[in-house]
Design goal:
The protein is an alpha/beta fold. Helices cover about 40% and strands about 10% of the residues. The protein has 2 domains: about 240 residues, Type I PLP-dependent aspartate aminotransferase-like (Major domain) (Aspartate Aminotransferase, domain 2, 3-Layer(aba) Sandwich), CATH 3.40.640.10; about 120 residues, Aspartate Aminotransferase, domain 1, CATH 3.90.1150.10. It has 14 helices and 11 strands. The chain is globular, with a radius of gyration of 24 Å. It binds pyridoxal-5'-phosphate (PLP). Pyridoxal-5'-phosphate binds next to helix 5.
Length: about 500
């Protein structure tokens, strides 16, 4: 993929630089963003004409706004092409056009879902979206709301859990849980106890038992789709311990939550974990990961609406123009973008969360991409596969004589792959994961960089051939062969 530089001095430059006159004007990325904007124009006009207010002067200068935007476009090209099927690095999935347009349309109103005063319409859309997310886990009317992302959503769940069980009761989570859980335990002033994982990256039950016997545990965090390996903690087995030890069970399904729609396709341990999600006290799911939303869209859900008591406050300066409850009374944060609710609601309208529906099929395509790619790479002696994908994340390594050497090669391949227009992520894996995949490897250091790919886009599967072609070129390049040949 070529960098598409835009000259801020030439604001009239074609939106598709490099395309000659008379040529098909489809951009190199295959996208037609400009067509999306036309739809936005239509809806914006309708909205603008719907307010019955006297006209008033707005003081802004079209030329300078235009100049700044063109300059911004020049800045924004300094990004990887996250929207493209050859981007398979971090957890970045492009928002659906309906989500980004709904978000943009809402910005002309800029509703604030802190309370009904700030956004009646978008508060309704948020409540409706939360009910849709809740149904994923069999909850008909959960307490919950959108947040700026998974971290805030988890913080809120852990805060509510702490408030429901006074005392300095520990939070436990697996060693593979998102790093922010430890930080949040610090914020909440409670101990954090990490639990080791098994060789598939799932919380070890024997280790959890030992901790439960020794500590007063307030909350167990089960991760459903770990950030590194896409592994799923055994929620069902953890549940089996809840009655005896009286902890709250929180599921961090920020990444994996949407996969509830296809859980019947997973192998038994993963399937059972998903089936048990509905019995958790709280669940975090991030629409901005798998739910086709722009950033700024997480969600926290509580099974028991009575958890709302934790939020009680009596601020005298706002919220009193509407009778009844509203989102400001059940949220840790105050101001929140109504645009996020609008975007999610529109997306759910197009893609209802149904088993066997279009969205579910697309999620499963990503899982198939990970499985198929694992099979393809496993047939080639240059690679070792480090996880059997549970969801759509595949972790692999160049085969090497030692752990140190594997790390060196993988870092080289990562860089060379970027040069080839294939975008992966690096991930620090413990040596035992390399050893169990490649028993003859010399363990000369405790961990090494390995290659991680998040195959979140349905297109990843059909782009597998190209993925492998560029990966092979990167392997050759990092081994000193054909360094200068870049695949077009
Ligand atoms: C399992 C898990 N939990 C929480 C988070 C944090 O989410 P956010 O980046 O939206 O704050 C992530 C992010 O990757 C994650 O993978």
């Amino acid at each position: 993929m070529q960098d598409r530089r835009i000259d801020p001095a030439e604001p009239d430059a074609s939106p598709n630089p490099g395309v000659q006159e008379g040529e098909e004007s489809r951009p190199a990325s295959g996208l037609r963003w400009i067509e999306e904007i036309a739809i936005l124009g239509e809806a914006t006009r309708l909205l603008e004409n719907s307010f019955e207010v006297p006209p008033f002067d707005v003081d802004w200068d079209v030329g300078s706004v235009r100049r700044m935007l063109v300059e911004l476009a020049g800045q924004l090209v300094d990004n990887d092409p996250y929207f493209h099927p050859l981007y398979a690095g971090q957890m970045l999935k492009p928002p659906h056009p309906v989500a980004r347009l709904a978000w943009a349309l809402s910005l002309f109103i800029n509703p604030n879902n802190h309370a009904l005063d700030g956004g009646r319409a978008t508060s309704r859309l948020e409540q409706s979206s939360i009910r849709s997310l809740g149904r994923l886990f069999g909850w008909t009317d959960p307490l919950g709301h959108l947040t700026s992302g998974g971290t805030l959503a988890n913080l809120e769940a852990l805060w509510v859990a702490r408030e429901c069980q006074p005392g300095r009761r520990a939070i436990v989570a697996s060693e593979e849980a998102h790093y922010t859980h430890r930080r949040m335990a610090g914020l909440l002033g409670v101990p954090f106890v990490p639990i080791p994982v098994d060789n598939r990256g799932r919380m070890e039950m024997a280790a959890l038992d030992a901790v439960l016997e020794r500590n007063e545990v307030g909350t167990v965090v089960a991760t459903v789709g770990t950030t590194g390996w896409g592994a799923t903690d055994p929620v069902d087995e953890i549940l089996g311990r809840r009655e005896r030890h009286g902890f709250r069970l929180h599921a961090d399904a920020a990444y994996g939550g949407y996969f509830s729609l296809v859980s019947e396709r997973f192998e038994a341990p993963t399937r059972k974990a998903f089936e048990a999600l509905g019995a958790c006290d709280s669940i975090v799911i991030d629409p901005h990961k798998h739910g086709l939303q722009p950033y700024g869209s997480g969600a926290v859900l509580f099974q028991n609406p009575e958890d709302a008591r934790v939020y009680a406050h009596d601020s005298p300066y706002t919220y009193y123009t509407a009778p009844g409850g509203h989102l400001g009374e059940i949220s840790l944060e105050c101001s929140r973008p109504g645009a996020a609710a609008a975007a999610l609601w529109c997306t759910l309208g197009l893609f209802p969360l149904e088993r066997g529906g279009t969205f579910a099929k697309q999620l499963w395509e990503g899982c198939r991409a990970a499985r198929d790619l694992a099979d393809d790479l496993a047939r080639d002696s240059k690679w070792t596969i480090l996880n059997t994908p549970e969801l759509d994340i595949l972790v692999f390594s160049a085969r090497a004589g030692s752990v140190r050497e594997a790390g060196r090669l993988n870092r080289g391949i990562f860089e060379e792959a970027r040069r080839q227009g294939l975008y992966l992520a690096l991930f620090e894996a413990p040596a035992h994961r390399l050893l169990s995949a490649q028993p003859e490897i010399e363990v000369d250091q405790p961990a090494a960089s390995v290659l991680r790919s998040c195959l979140m886009k349905p297109d990843h599967r059909s782009w597998r051939g190209e993925f492998i072609r560029r990966l092979e070129a990167a392997w050759r390049g990092s081994h000193g062969e054909a360094k200068s040949t870049r695949i077009p």
